[in-house]
């Protein structure tokens, strides 16, 4: 249930989301209720408004609230962060994230936390970080162990689909038992992520409901199990913009047989983003490459790290 509260001087409107139900306590059932307050602002951008898929994901989590206790959860593209706030209120250890280049968005997420009596900050009730899809900066590399990644209405623009999935794939490989749970609104029959799921070694399990869809994604197992665990996959940063996928493969082939390579390109400009991935067919190739501490291509020293680090 959603209710509206007052309009503040800056145009802020507070939405009140109420979650209720019963849980078993021994032989009897006990009524439970949780209220989440979400401040919304009439500002341009996607992150100051609670989009329709967020309450759907929040209800999905609420119905499984007992399983959230002590879970380590990351919400990407959090915006007003309704699902992540609910998970934190249900006993999970939650990190909320949104684009690192949008400081007002991150400040607003902190406002959402405080309004629900959650103190944001490292070692506090909840953490808020900047995390930009497709960029493997310090915030991504230093993420701790995770059980769940959450995302509501993040698939709103096809130009960012691959950035989202490559980020999710990278994090899941560092956390083989984790899952990515997302809800989305179907905006076009022409939009599809199936090929991208295959490209980034992800499989999906669709949990259809009337008018909404919830999707759980996890690293593939079976034939791709070693890739999913990240033991033979390397992140390669500081790539020269002129280095192609073929050249990257040629360089690393001297260390062992290369299963696949990917240089990540900007879809708008077609220019390399300066990083990519190498997957070796054997552990020996992976070990040989990582044991060599200095890798230089076209005069630039490469930043080489295991994808599970």
From TrEMBL:
Keywords associated with the record: Methyltransferase, RNA-binding, S-adenosyl-L-methionine, Transferase
GO biological process: methylation
GO CC entries: cytoplasm; nucleus
Chain segments annotated as transmembrane: none
InterPro entries per UniProt: Methyltransf_16 (IPR019410), Nucleotide-bd_a/b_plait_sf (IPR012677), RBD_domain_sf (IPR035979), RRM_dom (IPR000504), SAM-dependent_MTases_sf (IPR029063)
Pfam families assigned to the protein according to its UniProt record, in alphabetical order: Methyltransf_16, RRM_1
Source species, domain of life: Eukaryota
UniProt keyword RNA-binding present: yes
MF-aspect GO terms: methyltransferase activity; RNA binding
The keyword S-adenosyl-L-methionine belongs to this UniProt entry's keyword annotation: yes
PANTHER family (UniProt xref): HEPATOCELLULAR CARCINOMA-ASSOCIATED ANTIGEN, HISTONE-ARGININE METHYLTRANSFERASE METTL23
Family named by the database record: Belongs to the methyltransferase superfamily. METTL23 family.
Protein name: Uncharacterized protein
